[in-house]
Each structure stands twice: as C-alpha cells, then as structure tokens.
Amino acid sequence: xxxxxxxADLSRLYQTEFVRSARAVGVLWAxxxxxxAIIQVVILVQxxxxxxxxxxxxxxxxxxxxxxxxxFEVCLESDWPVPDCRGGLSxxxxxxxxxxxxxxxxxxxxxxxxxxLCLCLxxxxxxATVYKICAWLQLTAGFCLALACLLFPDSWExxxxxxxxxxxxxxxxxxxxxxxxxxxxxxxxxxxxxxLATLAFVLANRQDALLPPDxxxxxxxxxxxx
Length: 226
Description:
The protein is of the alpha+beta class. It is about 55% helix and about 10% strand. Mean pLDDT is about 80; it is low at about 210-225.
C-alpha cells in the first residue's frame, strides 16, 4: 500500500530531525569517551593515589617521610623542588603490592581506548552496532576500574605503605596517609564509564525504535557522514 504524500513528507521530516538530534548527542558521547580515555591514562601513570597528610612534627627525632604513592612509583619529598621518586612506568613494573590493581587499570585502559578506535567503524557499520560494541567495552572498562578501586585499599599492608604511612597502616587503614586525587578520579571514572555505556545503549536502541515504520533504514555513518 502506497503512503500518501503528506505522510511521506512527515516521515522524511521526522527522520531528518531524528538524525540531527542523534548526531549531536552522539558527537557529545564520542567527545566524552575520548576525555574518559585520557583520564584513564592519567589515573594509571600518576603517583598520587595516596599520600601523607599535612601534620606537624612535634617530636625531637627525625621527621617522618612525606610524599605520595601510585601504582608504579613512590615519590618522597626532599630538599630539592623535585621529589625523589622510585620506580616508574618506563620499567612497566608496578609496585609488588599493587600488581593486580595495575593490571585491572591496564585492562580498563585497553577497553576504553578500543572503544575510541571503534568510532572509526561508523564509516563501515551500522550506528546501532557500533554503539553496542562501544557500550560493552565501556562497561568492561568500568567494571575493571571498580575492581581496582576495591582492591587498592586491601593492598595497603605493604612495605612501601609502611615506609610512607607508618606502622599503623593495614588493609583498609591508611595510617598517617589519606587518599589523593588520582584515586578519587578513578572512582569518578567508574561512574563516568557507567554513564557513557548507558548512553551508548540508549543511542543504539533509538536507531530503530524512533524511526517511522515506513522509513526504517540502516543508518550508517551517523557521526562521520555529512
């Protein structure tokens, strides 16, 4: 049965408005995905997961060490402007106590950067398929990052932590230290991954659900085509 001209015009207008709104939201989602990937790199390499608190030394003995600690290196403050750091990402060897945490963050980093590379597939595959692939990758990244955030406090009972934070340190007890911005950023990254994955699933479902029945076509190149 042939549709009336008025219905056909309404269908084309509806599809045009849908494509415009979906493209705008999709571009925003892609930009946020790229920002999340950059944040993941910062989380992995920064030695600021935990650090000493600013307390005055009132005793007569030597002052306790002051500095910060990450997954790959420990940085102690010294008389020089630059802190004295041991370890580093260049050796690709995390601190022994945080190896499992570093592996989980690394897997999360791989997943989110793979989702960034999958944006190129908009040229060759349907938008719904690409969105779903990226959504599952972002869920994987968020899950691994959440596990890393849970395992990190459980690994505090280590020689590096005792040297920096005192003998009172233990699992889920930071002693004379407190969590720093890199660990907080990792926790926020879990929330970010969940939001991005949810948005990707919504965008994937909208590709078919919101198009009129007589004009449903596979929409390719939603983000990249003009």
